[in-house]
Automatic annotation (TrEMBL):
It comes from Nitratireductor mangrovi. This is Uncharacterized protein. SUPFAM superfamilies: gamma-Crystallin-like. It comes from the Bacteria. InterPro entries: G_crystallin-like (IPR011024).
Amino acid sequence: MGIYLYKELEFGGQQFAFPMPAMAELPLEIRFQMKSLKVYPGHAPVAFFEFPNYKGKRFLVGEAPTFIGDLGEWAGRLNSFSTSGYYPADE
């Protein structure tokens, strides 16, 4: 199983933590950058992150976020929807 990294972002005054499923071979030094936020009807928002030029290619990874409440407490997954995966950004 891969290593999980978390990236906290804020949208419209709400904080979200995005679990980033990283393959075990990826170095922990990689810093994920927000690429876009997409909303699918009936599902949680899906964030697409980009890590540049890893092994000569750029990749995107999408993941449905976990909501963090106003006090920073974990409120659990918004739902079970996830588009977790790695997508070459150049293709």
